[in-house]
Amino acid sequence: MPSRPLLPFLVIVYATTWLFQLPLVLVAFGVALDPAPLMPLVVLGFFAPLLAAIVLARLEPPPRTPLLAPLAPRGRIVWYVVALLHGPALYTAARALYGAAGGEGAAWAYPLASAANVGAMLIIPFTEQIPWRLFLYPRLEARLGPLGGSLATGAAWAIFHAQKHLLLGPGTPAAALAASAPLVVVMVAGTVVHTWLQRRSGAALVVVVAQAGLYLDNPAYAVGSTLVPLWLLAGAYAALAFAVVSLDPARFRRA
User: Fold this and answer.
1) What's the whole-number mean pLDDT along residues 64-86?
2) Of 88, 177, 234, 236, which one has the fewest beta carbons inside 10 Å?
């Protein structure tokens, strides 16, 4: 698996994301700018990883695997159901334990609430998992193994999202940093879980479905009022990642 495009991919992704979305972040923190003209750049920033992956995959010397080939449906349907529902199930279980311990401040569910949420569920899993799962992860796995590659991919994915996390906060750097912490845990631990799902099912498309399932019950919708639900999901993902690595280590051995 070629590894030369790794550094160009990360440089392009981070540079374009921060460049295109920094003005909107400044608006969120009180800088007097008109946000309307900035929105096309923000949207382009969301697609930067996908565009970079497509271009760099085409520039790789042969032999090369077409970038989208692993998305061909395969495997048993039960794994797609597990992938779609595992995120909501994790949050529900964490909320039940939290409530049993006397915890308050978290709703039982944060379902899809708008057409924009539905659109994000249908589009973002492809625009993110194609570059991170299909382009970056295989190259990091070749270097670091399945577990190391998963942790590194999750960290790179989380860094890409760092500026978006600033937009989720209520408008102070401290609050934005607080909101970023559980999201980073979700992404890093979630990538480990995604690797297990892919290796257990034999289908990369399962990972896309897994990210889409998070939108069905998304505690990130509560950011700005409370971080409790997001920390519950983060803790649940960390526990599940530890469990799959401990109980099914064969899925994380080098091929």
Assistant:
1) 92
2) 177
Mean pLDDT within 158-180: 72
pLDDT digits (tens, 9 = 90+) for 125-149: 999 999 999 999 999 999 999 999 9
- Integer Cα distance of 171 and 166 in angstroms: 8
Whole-number Å distance between alpha carbons of 22 and 145: 34
Distance of alpha carbon 50 from alpha carbon 211, whole angstroms: 16
Q: Which residue, 143, 146, 107, 128, is CA-closest to 210? A: 128
Please give the single-letter amino acid code of residue 42.
V
219 burial (CB, 10 Å; 0-12 / 13-18 / 19+) is buried
**Per-residue 3-state assignment (H helix, E strand, C coil) for 187-216:** HHHHHHHHHHHHHHHCCCHHHHHHHHHHCC
In the chain, what are the helix, strand and coil shares in percent, each to the nearest 5?
75, 0, 25
Kindly state the tokens that stand for 129: 């998992």
Number of H helices, E strands in the chain: 8, 0
CA distance 20 to 46: 9
Provide the 8-state DSSP code for 218: -
Q: Could you please report the per-residue DSSP string of 124-155? A: HHHHHHIIIIIIIHHHHHHHHHHHHHHHHHHH
The domain locations on the chain are 72-252
CB 127 within 8 A of CB 52: no
What distance in Å separates the CA atoms of residue 152 and residue 139, rounded to the nearest whole number?
11
> What integer pLDDT is reported at residue 65 of this predicted model?
77
- What is the mean pLDDT of the segment spanning 209-222? 94
pLDDT in tens, 179-198: 888 999 999 999 999 999 99
